[in-house]
Design a protein that fits this description.
The complex is a heterodimer of chains A (about 525) and B (about 160). In chain A, about 75% of the residues lie in helices and about 0% in strands. Chain A has 21 helices and 2 strands. The relative contact order of chain A is 0.13. Chain B is of the alpha/beta class. Classes of the chains: A mainly alpha (about 525), B alpha/beta (about 160).
């Protein structure tokens, strides 16, 4: 790997975790995901097709990973960037690349903890800006300083690992025997079962279970890819859940916020929302979580409303540096609502600090509950699943299509909630949650997700046995070809996936399950079962 | 007494970690919230009830009411309850009311005035610290753990640091 390539890989890893331009931008859903970073890394390494294939393969095991409320089980972005880069430079096959990427994901989660710890120290600076009413300075503490820290934590170690690691990985792998490579490939073929099993934990329940098998059989018998399976079951899901466009008109309430004399300009409200959507977690820290991000988002609102009232400005800044933590797209409703409340206060309404604290504290938990479930467990994985089949076949357009689809849906949802909170207030947010429409979407996405996961098992989990039985003196029977494949192609991967799901549901940690899979693969190859 | 599968201190009550992780691994079918202010707040109560899937029952009570509710014998033998409080105080009151809690998971306690950092996402005030000590002395084990996939850390270990 050249110096420039290693540098670009390191920057890609940083960007995947930053607010710029595709990474944190949108709930860690784009460049953060290996399917997308695989393409970028592939371009850097001079082989976009292979990069996309490897990235999509790595993405399979992280499809069910969720980071909720500041927890981080593994860093898929390091697995996706550095893993893909090392695999391309060592010239190993995509399945073996997976076995290489898993430990990287585990290492990467240390960066997350370090960043949240270090950013806790920045909180003091934010408090000082609030004391002094400096709304124009908040970007420094909310974006600039924490991102410098993050750059040091991500890009620098990643650069050294890429630059010096590629040679080591290549020479180690090249010196290993064929049996070892067979083991690596077998492990790589089996590991996606763990990722699929993890995602099944969220959606494999009730009647949705049957769609998992339907998706599996359709893919196994008719050979359909994941996109056709997605489209078919998207229709099925909409039918089954009886989804109607009118469902989205949840609040018939009139606009409540139409009496204020002094109004925020539209540009300011949009600016606050934009800052929230894309920089909400730029200064994520253990002490206040997204509190500093909230202050940064509210700063333009405060600056405009309290232009000539320095005391009010300071009070407002102080009340928005408090602890805050939610899912950001759904949390847009809080930004809208709080902006409207500030506007009312600026017009003389009797709203004290406590009423702001109460509404923020009351909404952040429940909205995170809904938002994390909606986006992390169903919407993002579901949209990735639609395109992951194409990406795995080496289609470089697939990750791009996914990103476009994601941005459109995600921003539309966030902006809708911003407006709902701003124009119609807290009652409308409650109406939305009580209407059950979000649960309908979650159910529909669960059906679709189950079906596509079934299809994935058939196509991208691989496990076959080499056992042959001596039927008579001159006839042998291949257990795989003449028995398993005769019943249904992909039967062993299906059993393997369900086994992983069972182990995970018993409370085993995903890394324990992965170790069990690795042990089975090693033994299986050595005794010539696989 | 009703069947409590998880007792957890978490000042955001039901949020992403409960919805995406704990509900799954505990296979709970009921959430009991013991919190005086939430009980009095009709808006938050309605919101909390609205966000969980329909098959999961949500009971919101003040600490006293929750104590009475939890000490009843359940009619339904499949009942599995996640008990949530915002603070160690409420847990102590429940224990004093006769609710047996062999282990408590310390999840999230956000920073606010008067609290100091305890461990990553948990901040405690001196009073809360004393309560935690008393709970530990009463024989209840406490573990710091955000989500089931995290290693659980004995709170005694953090205290001894």
């Amino acid at each position: 790997m050249t110096f420039l390539q290693a540098l670009l890989i390191a920057i890609t890893y940083y960007l995947a975790n930053s607010p710029w331009p595709f990474g944190g931008l949108g709930n860690y859903a784009t460049l953060y995901r290996p399917m997308v970073s695989g393409l970028v890394v592939g371009c850097i390494m001079g082989n976009p097709v292979l990069g996309t294939q490897i990235g999509a393969t790595i993405n399979l095991i992280y499809i069910g990973f969720i980071s909720a409320g500041g927890s981080m089980p593994a860093d898929m972005s390091l697995a996706g960037t550095l893993g893909t880069a090392l695999a391309i430079s060592a010239n190993i096959d995509t399945d073996a690349a997976l076995a290489l990427a898993v430990p990287l994901g585990l290492l990467g989660s240390l960066v997350w903890v370090a960043h949240l710890t270090l950013c806790s120290f920045l909180v003091r600076i934010a408090d000082r800006y609030a004391e002094e009413g400096k709304t124009d300075q908040t970007w420094k503490v909310a974006v600039l300083y924490p991102q410098l820290i993050l750059f040091a934590l991500t890009a620098i170690p990643c650069f050294f690992a890429a630059y010096y690691g590629s040679g080591i990985v290549a020479s180690v792998l090249n010196s290993l025997s064929g049996t070892f490579m067979t083991i690596l490939s077998t492990i790589g073929g089996m590991l996606p079962a763990v990722g699929i099993g993890m995602m099944l934990m969220s959606i494999f329940k009730g009647k949705a279970k049957i769609y998992f098998f339907l998706g599996f059989f359709i893919a196994a018998y008719f050979g359909l890819g994941t996109l056709p399976v997605s489209l078919i079951f998207l229709c099925v899901a909409l039918l089954v859940t009886d989804f109607k466009p009118e469902d989205l008109n949840v609040s018939k309430a009139e606009d409540t916020n139409n009496t204020s004399a002094k109004r925020l300009s539209k540009a300011t409200l949009n600016k606050a929302w934009w800052r929230w959507m894309y920089y909400f977690q730029a200064c994520y820290n253990y002490e206040r979580m997204q509190g500093i991000g909230f202050l940064h988002s509210m700063s333009p609102v405060i600056a405009e409303l309290y232009q000539d009232k320095p005391d009010e400005k300071i009070k407002a800044m102080k009340r928005h540096t408090e602890f805050f933590n939610t899912e950001n797209a759904t949390g847009s409703a809080v930004i809208g609502l709080v902006a409207a409340m500030e506007e009312q206060r600026a017009n003389g309404a009797d709203l004290d600090d406590e009423s702001f604290t109460n509404i923020k504290a009351g909404l952040m938990g429940p909205l995170a509950g809904v938002g994390d479930t909606l986006w992390q467990t169903v919407m993002i994985p579901m949209m990735i699943l639609m395109f992951i089949g194409m990406a795995k076949e080496g289609n470089v357009i697939a990750p791009i299509l996914y990103c476009v689809l994601f941005y459109v849906v995600y921003n539309a949802f966030g902006y809708w909630l911003l407006k709902l909170g701003y124009n119609k207030g807290s009652e409308a947010i409650l109406n939305l949650m009580e209407s059950g429409v979000i649960n309908k979407v979650i159910t529909a996405a669960g059906i679709l997700g189950c079906a596509v996961l079934g299809g994935l098992v058939s196509k991208y989990v691989s496990l076959s046995t080499t056992i042959t039985l001596q039927e008579s003196a001159d006839a042998t029977m291949s257990l795989q070809k003449d028995f398993f494949d005769a019943i249904c192609p992909g039967l062993l991967p299906l059993l393997l996936t369900l086994g992983c799901y069972k182990m995970l549901m018993k409370g085993m940690k995903s890394y324990t399950v992965m170790l069990i899979i690795i042990a089975i693969a090693v033994v299986g190859v050595l005794v010539h079962i696989f | 007494m009703r069947n409590i599968v998880l007792a957890r201190i978490d000042d955001r009550l039901i949020h992403g970690q409960i919805m995406t992780a704990w509900l799954k691994t505990t296979v709970a079918n009921q959430i009991v919230i013991a919190d005086d202010s939430t009980y009095k707040n009709a808006f938050t109560s309605r919101l909390l009830k609205a966000i969980v899937p329909a098959e999961i029952k949500v009971v919101i009570q003040d600490v006293k009411g929750a104590g009475e509710y939890l000490s009843e014998n359940s009619i339904d033998s499949t009942e599995k309850i996640i008990l949530l409080t915002k603070s160690p105080e409420a847990m102590e009151l429940l224990i004093n009311a006769g609710i047996k809690l062999p282990t408590i998971v310390l999840g999230n306690m956000g920073y606010k005035q008067g609290r100091k950092s305890f461990s990553r996402n948990v901040s405690v005030s001196p009073d809360e610290m004393a309560t935690i000590q008393r709970i530990l002395e009463s024989g209840t084990e406490m573990y710091y753990q955000m989500i089931p996939a995290d290693e659980r850390v004995n709170v005694k270990k953090i205290l001894n640091k």
